[in-house]
Amino acid sequence: MEKEQKLKLIGIDIGTTHCKVGLFDAKGRLLHLEKQPTITHQSADGRLSYDPEELWQQFAGMLKQVLAPAKPGEVQAIGIASMAEAGLLVDKGTGKPKTEIVPWYDRRTMKQYERISQEGDVRTLFSRIGLYPSFKHGLAKILWFKEQEPSLLEDGIWLSAADYLAFRLTGKFGTDHTLAARTYAYRIDRKEWDKEWLAAFGLKADLFPPVKASGSPLGEVRGELGFPPGIKVAVAGHDHLCAALAVGAIKPGVVFDSIGTAESLIGTLDQRVLGEKEYNSRLSFGCHVVPGKMVWIGGLSASGGSLEWLRRQLGDEPLSYGEIETLLASTGPEPTGIIYYPYLSGSGAPLPDPKVRGALIGLSAEHGKADLLKAILEGTAYEMEAIRRAAAQVTDDEIEQFVAVGGGTRNHTWMRIKATVSGCTIRIPPVEEATLLGAALLAAIGAGFFQNTEEAVAGLELEAESQVVAPWEESKERYRQIFEEGYLKLQHPIRQYFRTAGKD
């Protein structure tokens, strides 16, 4: 009990939109939060990147603020989570970055993605890697750098954003299974780098760091950094999976829904051999932060991003979120009848295609701002319902509940639309920073303060009850009809257009 009262933990989240550092007690209460925008740079030819030194300075400054009031020995562990596919090459000898950090969404790697797709048997690779080829993966980024300057790979090591920050804190290289599994170079069936596959591109496994369980201590904070000594540092892993742990969405039949700029649905599976059923779902599979478990993942790159795009178009100044809520509240429970395909950045499962583009169908002169805003939210809900149905076929589980976190949960109309389209209840837990909390808990488990994930989650004391959002019962049938007769059936001609006449 005394240990729990004194124990303080830090979670770090390197996100697409924001960088965050949070201080928690052992009961999961957030004591201090530092938050800054993730600084994104764009080159003249459109390439997007983060500056490694700039990112490190951001986090070093926020860590100093969080640690300033802590007593010596009070903070025991730091867990670091990050977006999954962002990474860079670092010199093994000097520790200096060889490249910028490439975000997961940067599209410079489209040529490399096509080469990867043609190089190996996608079905065979899926059975051991759990993924389909994508321009997002670490392997595509590595090949892009290799084509620009082959010497970049000499004495180089590929690190995810979380791995890099952990290295700067400890001086040691390492990653966890969940981030390794998003490189398209890691065998989730054997928990090792895929040497045979890498050899097809002239790459070796030593280009990648050692892999440990999520939350395993990588080392202690280096004394010369000026932070209190003795703090253990761990790579906690994929941000969405850390968040799922923090809110207890780690059981079959309960789906974690992370709603931000992008949106992801994530479910938990027991370990299994990936076969035809999994392959045909077009979902991604990988390692969980929970030992002995796997995950399925389906996502939409432009979920909240679609709403952000539209609110910038509807006036000289972007609509405020208050204005959006007021407009949406005026629409009632009935669907707009407009079909929006939210493919501003391509589509994922169950019909992955990085080249497809968005579309609005069914507009009339009577439609106004409120209808357009609602249609955008309906389109994202339809896309996530397609993912939910694909997952239900794979898992043979009745998916009846989402546990949702992220900025999108503050939009009540959106949550009602999602509940109505899916027929599921949506539970919104009272956790302010789920990714930070999950990262902190995993570091505490790795440092031996909790025996396992069950004990860590069971010890959380959340002051408020979860909000539960139910469907609009009177609108469920109409939404189902639009989804099945409109959204699903019009997919083929839309996609066919972009494969032929609509090419860039």
TrEMBL record:
Boundaries of every Carbohydrate kinase FGGY C-terminal domain copy: 289-446
Protein name: Carbohydrate kinase
Domain Carbohydrate kinase FGGY N-terminal: 10-245
Gene Ontology terms for molecular function: kinase activity; phosphotransferase activity, alcohol group as acceptor
Gene Ontology biological process: carbohydrate metabolic process
Gene3D superfamilies on file: 3.30.420.40
SUPFAM superfamilies: Actin-like ATPase domain (SSF53067)
Sorted UniProt keywords: Kinase, Transferase
InterPro entries per the UniProt record, alphabetical: ATPase_NBD, Carb_kinase_FGGY, Carb_kinase_FGGY_CS, FGGY_C, FGGY_Carb_Kinase, FGGY_N
Protein family according to the UniProt entry: Belongs to the FGGY kinase family.
Organism: Capillibacterium thermochitinicola
